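Subject: design request, 387 residues
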């Protein structure tokens, strides 16, 4: 079962919650430094409720479900939970939840409604979720793309850089200008890592490739994404990539008669002529696992990072315009990622200033990947300051 709850509906539902649950809410989303007895009672009450009914699971989404990208992919994962567990679960979601204080208020509301498993699906929810988790020890929290955990909060992510690398292999083969363009969202390691992987994939088949980047400082903003894509085309890019959530970049390329990729989900329908492939995330396997853990009482904190190997990342709907030998190269990379025989981050990897970041024949570990704050050689421009 599922329900799409608006923010206004959440406010009303919070008002109807039980006295114990309501006591866990401290005015305007603020809380005391330590968990209050009322908060503990609310958490215990919610846990007890779950024991006599379906497991209540809630999702906080940063964008709209219809974004065709990041949030759409997460919601497909939510639907996979319903398909797998049927009436053992009851899921709900709130879309377009801003990162920051508003996220804390929404997450508290979700707990107040008796949800025992809560997923926060964007980096900016990390601190708000930590605060709410501290007040509700009986509730399990899952945070996407973050790095901080708690006894009842773990992190999960997908190795999107693997899809970016495979897309790069195609981009490097299809470009005529040897200039690629990337519309970046927010300059955090996750996004910088994807830009670098895309460039490394392109350089693996075309060493002459250069990558230009335009930052829009938003995950989902179609007008800004369109403007950024057009700017890159004006600078000579003839293949576009993105780390943003709408189909605007692909649609802009379609109008200009250039190539582009889908991101997070299959976007081929938005630009049939321009679409080269879509680097997609399948959140279903992880969401099913997390739900199973909660149902069986085996859930534990930690961090999970899945990719091609676990069925979480793929490159799909490859265009007929892509030559057979290029498709074969992508298939080889995909097979190597799946069985562990291929490593994207194997040195030598050099930053744009010439500094060697990963030595020859050395494979970078996840700690290194999690803190990437440099462009590889071939990416032009600079990362916005303060990031």
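Subject: RE: design request

Done. Sequence follows.
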């Amino acid at each position: 079962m599922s329900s799409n709850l608006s923010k206004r509906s959440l406010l009303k539902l919070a008002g109807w919650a039980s006295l114990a649950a309501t006591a866990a809410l401290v005015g305007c989303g603020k809380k005391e430094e330590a968990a209050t007895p009322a908060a503990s009672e609310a958490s215990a009450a919610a846990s007890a409720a779950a024991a006599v009914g379906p497991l209540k699971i809630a999702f906080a989404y940063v964008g709209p479900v219809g974004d065709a990208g990041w949030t759409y992919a997460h919601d497909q994962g939510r639907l996979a939970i319903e398909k797998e567990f049927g009436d053992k679960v009851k899921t709900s979601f709130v879309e377009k939840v801003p990162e920051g204080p508003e996220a804390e208020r929404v997450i508290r509301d979700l707990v107040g409604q008796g949800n025992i498993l809560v997923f926060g699906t964007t980096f900016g929810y990390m601190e708000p979720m930590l605060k709410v988790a501290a007040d509700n020890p009986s509730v399990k929290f899952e945070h996407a793309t973050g790095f901080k955990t708690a006894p009842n909060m773990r992190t999960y992510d997908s190795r999107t850089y693997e899809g970016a690398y495979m897309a790069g292999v195609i981009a490097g083969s299809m470009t005529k200008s040897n200039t690629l363009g990337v519309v970046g969202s927010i300059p955090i390691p996750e996004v910088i890592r994807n830009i670098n992987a895309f460039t490394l994939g392109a350089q693996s088949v075309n060493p002459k490739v250069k990558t230009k980047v335009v930052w829009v400082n938003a995950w989902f903003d179609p007008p800004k994404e369109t403007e950024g894509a057009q700017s890159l085309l004006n600078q000579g890019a003839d293949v576009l990539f993105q780390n943003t959530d709408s189909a605007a970049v692909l649609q802009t390329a379609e109008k200009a008669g250039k190539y582009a990729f889908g991101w997070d989900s299959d976007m081929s329908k938005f630009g049939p002529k321009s679409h080269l492939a879509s680097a997609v995330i399948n959140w279903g396997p992880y969401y099913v696992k997390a739900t199973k853990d909660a149902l069986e009482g085996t859930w534990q904190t930690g961090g999970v990072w899945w990719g091609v190997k676990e069925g979480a990342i793929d490159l799909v709907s490859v265009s007929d315009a892509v030559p057979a030998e290029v498709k074969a190269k992508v298939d080889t990379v995909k097979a190597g990622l799946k069985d562990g025989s291929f490593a994207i981050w194997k040195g030598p990897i050099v930053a744009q200033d010439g500094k060697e970041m990963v030595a020859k024949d050395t494979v970078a570990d996840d700690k290194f990947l999690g803190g990437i704050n440099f462009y590889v050689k071939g990416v032009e421009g600079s990362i916005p300051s303060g990031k």
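The chain has 13 helices and 15 strands.
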